[in-house]
Amino acid sequence: MSSRTAEHARQPSQRLLLKRFAMALGSYALVILLVLLAYALGLYQADGPALALNLLLLLLSQLVFLCLYLSGINQRLCDPSLTEAQVLVALAWLSLFLWHVPTARGALLGIYPLVMLFGAFQLRPWVFARCAALAWLLFAGMNGWDAYHLQLDSAPQALLQTAVLGVLLLWLSLFAVYVQDLRRRMMRRRSALLAHRDTLRGMMQQLEELAATDELTGLYNRRHFLQLAERALLTLQPGQRLGLALIDLDHFKRINDQHGHAAGDRALQAFAAVARVCLRDHDILARYGGEEFVLLLPECDAERLTACCERLRLAFSQAEPLEQPVQGLSLSAGMALLGPGDDLDRALHAADQALYRAKHEGRNRCLAAWTAGHVD
């Protein structure tokens, strides 16, 4: 089997069709046993070569179907399952077989419903009815021919057999209508369930985002930041470090007192907007509480962390909050570095101590935990 053929066979839809084809082959095998039994009992009114030719035609037809499945050509057809084609081939071959067993035809007429059941779950009702009508016409034609030309005395028996087959096929046609209607309802329910699942999945995602996000700034909240930071620490490789900074907006209480809480909210939002522009996509920034923010930089060193915090400080000093203009915006930052095995709480405490020093030394500056003075 070539790689392309194997690829077609591995497709879920093709695997299902191949399983159905294997079931059809199993049914053929059982019918062939009946053919051989009829031949052994002397009921098959043809010689051995004719029987061999009949079986050879069946084998060739099934090889054609198998090649269509394995090559994927069936996927380009209107009916990739080839159900109607398989039913028609089976009806033709079965009729050829029953033509040679006129005396046992009534005992074997039940094979026609067996063939039709193969299409009950796949064929559209009108297609199924068309195949059922063909099966009945084939059987009725054979019985009529034999009753008229060969065994006139068996005409009532042939008529009864034809009527019995007609009743069976009519019942199967009604059953196929019911099955297809049931299948359509199940498909509609499945579509509805999938739609509900997608809706629930979207709602769950929104809830997760709400649980992880600060409503005012749109940044991560403290709880989610701590989860992300712990996860980043666990994945650190030897030699890698994380940059950590606690950032506090200067004189925030004065902004609220002089300009109102709306101005304070605009200042917080202005910082979040500035940070989105200054930071990389994989940098993590969260609102830590009140006017305090926390920043985590992956694959960082002292120089990069310092440059990033200074860039944020300068950009924020030039920000102009919408609707509520506030003069003299500034921030202070305390910085720390983490390596593999470091404790996050201890690093946050070190950054907080550096931030305290920055506030104590006059604000509007970035100080590092690894130094005793200003990073500049």
Automatic annotation (TrEMBL):
Annotated keywords: Membrane, Transmembrane, Transmembrane helix
Catalysed transformations (reactions): 2 GTP = 3',3'-c-di-GMP + 2 diphosphate
Signal sequence region: none
EC number: 2.7.7.65
Domain of life of the organism encoding this protein: Bacteria
Transmembrane segments: 21-44, 50-70, 82-101, 107-127, 134-152, 158-179
Top EC group: transferase
Residue span, GGDEF domain: 240-371
Presence of keyword Transcription regulation: no
Tagged with keyword Membrane: yes
Protein name: diguanylate cyclase
Organism this protein belongs to: Pseudomonas fluvialis
Taxonomic lineage from the root: Bacteria, Pseudomonadati, Pseudomonadota, Gammaproteobacteria, Pseudomonadales
